[in-house]
User: Fold this.
Amino acid sequence: MTVRDTPLAGIKVVELSHVLAGPICGLMLSDLGAEVIKVERPDGGDAQRWDVSADDRLGSDSASFFLVNRGKDSLALDLKSEAGKAALWELIGSADCVVENYRVGVLDKLGFGYEQVAARYPGMVYCSISGFGRSGPWADRGGFDLVMQGMSGLMSFTGDRGARHPTKCGAPITDIATGVVAAMGILAALLRKQRTGKGDLVEASLLETGIMFTYLQSALVLAGAEDPVPLGTGYPTFTPYEAYEAEDGWVAFGITAAPDSWLKLLDILGLSEIADDPRFASTQDRVANRDALGALITEKFKKKPRSHWVEALSAAGMPCGPVLTVSEMMVHPQVLARGVFADYPHGELGTAKAMACPLRFAQAAKPAKKSAPLLGQKGITASL
Assistant:
């Protein structure tokens, strides 16, 4: 196979984005073989390059910038100048897709909004990523992941059981997931363009992506249930299905829907005497008495290390795993076997570790490993 065999071989993307959601979208497309040209301002480029803590440095730029922008090229353009505008129009004219995540209206003022681009290139797939979407009373407001986790409802049911204060997910999930959702929309629009020859405007917003994560909780509220509350690692309609503390750490597991799964768990834990306890007779009973059940399980778990429980539960066919720190995750045998982290070229350091594409294809070739570009430069490509 050659590089032309990658899933998106021949697709060219102009990325007018910064920080996270837009760059994640570009990363997804680059990882599938698209040529992604990141357009940055000449005076410092994407703020993610430099607006970080001292611990996040990797050469001249940040480690986080390297991770989400590897595989791209960079073009530094002053879009307020005539020369910069002319260069961008030339670039767009050779592209299949434009991705932008500026505040709604900014690119329109610069002359590169959807309507302006579509007027010149009606076959263009144009993806607009924003905080609140392009319509509605809050359309022109900026938005961060923190704000969207709050407005989407996510913070209201995240955190320790019984918590009285809102808690955000540690990862910027609305930023990251919006980039992935946007890439999915672009792929759908490109497929439609193949059939019809017509371009389209693809919209993705952090708010609506955040709301997407409330599928289960929204379903319950729509059905008449009360607002969900924080349950720690628990699940609102099923238990045991959470993390429990072992002798040397935590184990996350859940029983399956098989009728004998509950009895198998009791046997593993040495709790067969509660098999006939009416508090735990059914799923609904166990949910109603989750605190009492959790106390019994934790008492048993704390007597043995997490490795014991992972192996015992796995042998019984119950999905489970240790709760790992990030550094522990990186050296777990399964993560190593899958090659989740790999060496990529780095323009200053030679090579640097980065997260690989989470998608795998049996037939399509992988794109060549390529660095994140220095500002205004093409990335360095290598076969590692």
Summary: Residues 3-212+337-382 form a domain with the Rossmann fold fold (CATH 3.40.50.10540). The mean pLDDT is 93.
